[in-house]
TrEMBL record:
Part of the FGAM synthase complex composed of 1 PurL, 1 PurQ and 2 PurS subunits. Signal peptide: none annotated. PANTHER family: PHOSPHORIBOSYLFORMYLGLYCINAMIDINE SYNTHASE SUBUNIT PURS. GO terms for molecular function: ATP binding; phosphoribosylformylglycinamidine synthase activity. InterPro entries: PurS, PurS-like_sf. Keywords: ATP-binding, Cytoplasm, Ligase, Nucleotide-binding, Purine biosynthesis. It is an enzyme of class 6 (ligase). This is Phosphoribosylformylglycinamidine synthase subunit PurS. It catalyses: N(2)-formyl-N(1)-(5-phospho-beta-D-ribosyl)glycinamide + L-glutamine + ATP + H2O = 2-formamido-N(1)-(5-O-phospho-beta-D-ribosyl)acetamidine + L-glutamate + ADP + phosphate + H(+). It is found in: Cytoplasm. Pathway: Purine metabolism; IMP biosynthesis via de novo pathway; 5-amino-1-(5-phospho-D-ribosyl)imidazole from N(2)-formyl-N(1)-(5-phospho-D-ribosyl)glycinamide: step 1/2. GO terms for biological process: 'de novo' IMP biosynthetic process. Its EC number is 6.3.5.3.
Length: 90
């Protein structure tokens, strides 16, 4: 069994109001030195069997059709505990 992680983030050119709200709150809470905050989503998928190229291709399909909005979001897929990693930017 493999654990595959999909991280979804807004594209850099898309405004991130939640990230800006966190960034604005940090100094009020005594945290300095943070120049930008971007908010995202993390999905962990437990996959039956090994994380083969075919399996990872299916995860990319899942990420593109269900987990992300390719118009405004990018995603990255990686196997937790493994070295396989792939990013997608639409």
């Amino acid at each position: 069994m493999a654990r595959v992680v999909v991280d979804v983030m807004l594209k850099p050119e898309i405004l991130d109001p939640q990230g800006k709200a966190v960034q604005g709150a940090l100094p009020r809470l005594g945290f300095s030195g943070v120049s930008d905050v971007r908010q995202g989503k993390r999905f962990e998928l437990e996959i039956d069997g090994d994380a083969t190229d075919e399996t990872l291709a299916r995860v990319h399909e899942i990420a593109e059709t269900l987990l992300s909005n390719p118009v405004i979001e990018d995603y990255a897929v990686h196997v937790e505990g493994g070295s396989a990693s792939a990013k997608h930017r639409a």
